Known about the structure:
Blueprint: H1 8-11, E1 14-16, H2 20-37, H3 42-47, E2 50-55, H4 58-66, H5 68-76, H6 86-94, E3 103-105, E4 108-110, E5 118-119, E6 131-137, E7 143-151, E8 157-159, H7 177-187, H8 191-203, H9 207-230, H10 245-253, H11 258-278, E9 282-284, H12 294-305, H13 310-330, H14 335-338, H15 344-360, H16 363-375, H17 393-413, H18 423-436, H19 449-452
Parallel strand pairs: 2-5
Antiparallel strand pairs: 1-9, 2-6, 3-4, 6-7, 7-8
Helix pairs in contact: 2-5, 5-6, 8-13, 9-11, 9-12, 10-11, 11-12, 11-17, 12-15, 12-17, 13-15, 15-16, 15-17, 16-17, 16-18
This protein binds iron/sulfur cluster (SF4).
Iron/sulfur cluster binds near residues 290, 344, 383 and 384.
Amino acid sequence: MTTIALSFFDIFKIGPGPSSSHTMAPMKAGHDFAREAARLSPGELERAEKIEVRLYGSLSATGEGHGTDAAVVAGLMGNPPETCSTDLIDRLHLQKNNAVDPINIGDKVFHMAVKEVIYDKIQHDFPFSNTLVIRLLDKDATTIFEKEYYSVGGGFLQWKGWTPPERGEPIYGFSSAVELGELMEKSGVAGHDVLMQNEMAITGASEKEIFSGLDVVLDAMEVSVDGGLDGEGLLPGPLKVRRNAAYLYRNGCTMGGSAGRFIALLSAYALAASEENAAGHRVVTAPTCGAAGVIPAVYCLMKRNLKIPHKNLRRGLMAAAVVAFLCKTNASIAGAEVGCQGEIGVATAMASAMITYAVQEDPVLAVHAAAIALEHQLGLTCDPVKGYVQIPCIQRNAVGAVKAYNAHILAVLEKPGYFDLRLDYVIEAMAETGRDMNRKYKETGLGGLAVCIPEC
Ligand code: SF4
């Protein structure tokens, strides 16, 4: 098995929603293409007349609902996901027929409207489902330069001929939860120190830089929750979904009975971040945009309601990242590959590990909590109505957050010695279930709720 050499920041990426594979990665593709094409010779650039963007697979099937077209165009305009303004995205959505801002490649200026993006074949022969091809064409539509990109889940982008970037070797190499558990036991080093030493070795960053990066991620999560709690009105798109987080939060605060209030607040936090995602505002992939409400909800609960100290919150976030490392490496975190079990399912497992580690600082217990959480999300399909990351996605985040807390309680209150390291088997089951899952349930909008709720 492959030794895992992922960084925390490969998992937690900040950018506009509503889908890491459909907005963040395509935006990166547009941004990369503009930079690469700028290296062409002046003669080649002079001949170029037009930029062509073709979407394939689930990018074609549900790209319109996810705003893939606007994301690629914003990227071509020179915007990376971390800094792209929400205002530009809103303008691109509102004025699909017009070229709202110029695209500058070298000295050449292009104009492209969002509606020019081509929704090509859903079934295709490219090696990855979510493929997009960007070309620079001359006046006869002959290709001057092209690049074939693959959005491989969680905002990760690869392309034809891509080779993994050079990275340092982790100090504590592992490829499974069992191996990680064994090496932690053998080394006698605390779980979070093992993860920090690995992160430093892999990325070359200092401990201070890594902590500061984790704080930026935690802050962005909290901002997404607060943005949603302040939000009112309808979300974009034809479903006319009303924002509900603020209403639920207000009702939750005045609810009698601490158990109901607790669940209402946790759910409101999750709805809030998810509604921000659906609005195309900035969120954190955790591990994806579609699942961007689960971990921020549990984080806000830990910080605001449970008053867990900041250093434990950071450590919890590291534990959450490790669960994503294992799922991404040994199964998938892409709805297009394994359905929603890879998105909300993995987020639930990550959040459960996060709170368990933050409270107990016991890696075995955290891994056990993650296994319980993921076990009960196996088989979860991806079936967004009309391709919009709204129904069932927004409420599914709230249910995932509550389930994460439930798994945490089950793990910490079970009889000592009952817990085990079965997470690897659960991840294997997720991969197997994903392989068997009909394509209809993998982010195509062609099955399940997507067809059973045709009009809302
Ligand atoms: S159903 Fe799940 S995997 Fe599919 S778009 Fe919604 S959140 Fe993502």
